[in-house]
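Support reply, case 0932

Customer input (verbatim):
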Amino acid sequence: MTNQFPNVSPEQATAQLIEEQFLGVPTDRQSAASAVFVNFPYELLIKGLAETLPKDRVVVEILETAQPDPRLLETVKQLHKKGFRIALDDFSLSDNWNAFLPYVHIIKFDVRESTLQEIQAYILHHRALLNGTIFLAEKVETIEEFDTCKNMGFTLFQGHFFSKPVIFKSKKIIQNQIIALKLIQEVNAESPDLMQIEELLKRDIALSFKIMRYAQNILYNARGIRGSRSQSIKDIVVYLGVTELRRFVLVACLTSFNSPKTNEIYYLSLIRARFCELAANRLLGIHSSNDAFMVGLFSLLDVILGIPQEELIEQVVISADVRIALQERKGMLFQLVNLAQLYENRQWEEASLEAKKVGLTRGIVAEMINDATKWADEMPIGKPQRSGIERTRWR
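Our regenerated output:
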């Protein structure tokens, strides 16, 4: 909020931007229609981090500090082949980048680092290699610079001549630090246990939401369309595999170690998720229990973030049943989460009637609610602090 670059490495800055822009905070419709230019240091490009982002929304900027070696060239070729847009940031007018130019969509020329005459000479000398390349002038501060660049063929511009930097604030999902550490440890084990990874992800609403958005990006890049089949967390873990899971952890966990505190809304989300899972497993079978868990987990996400539910669920891979429960408030999965909510609000008569509708007795529901509460209590973060208010055990 001080409007200056923090004292962090370029790698950490890029990873945090990705986590916050593409995983942690849902995008509004206006932002979703815009292109986001993301700086990538050499190491993060080589590790394939750019491939985890939605190619229709990002321009991958290669930082000026990157070495134009064969390894980076091969990475750029792969990104180009997969449909990503590539930009060279703060371009130094060096011939060392000539081999990259056929795969580059945008070159950003810093008009403070090179004179306009030097830039024009470079463009004329490399005209054959730059056919179809878009030129962006950065740090434009006067009308004269703008007019000159425009006459030279520049079509994109940025700088204080147009606007001063503007700071945006948004809500962020709080992530469980201890679970994140356990997840880091598990995905980097010699033989990662996918069942344990699934369990860790299911115990944290932030990580659950982020990995579903992450999978949405991967599915989109692989198929060119949004994935539509049912995707439980188990499905996503298996689909991504160890390599992609390690990339996800690099982005989602290592950049989010803030205060590990939690609050009651997250706690209620976990209770709802576990209760719905137990109830669906009893009534509908194991496949539906995965969907039921997601309905319970995300039932309060709109309250947490202050964003309409319909906008949130457009950004994750969920089944039609989950969508109907969350958006239309219909179907058996909605009845289960509604039953949990009635118990939360101590509406005993209504809860008994709802339990009867779905085929459960009040005693069985109470038992499952207590089991779900104990499960939430066992989270490594501990129980929420209540300022003297005692937690209710359902009877």
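We compared this against your earlier run and they match. Two observations from our side: The chain has a mean pLDDT of 79. The first strand starts at residue 36 and ends at 40. Please reopen the case if you see a mismatch on your end.
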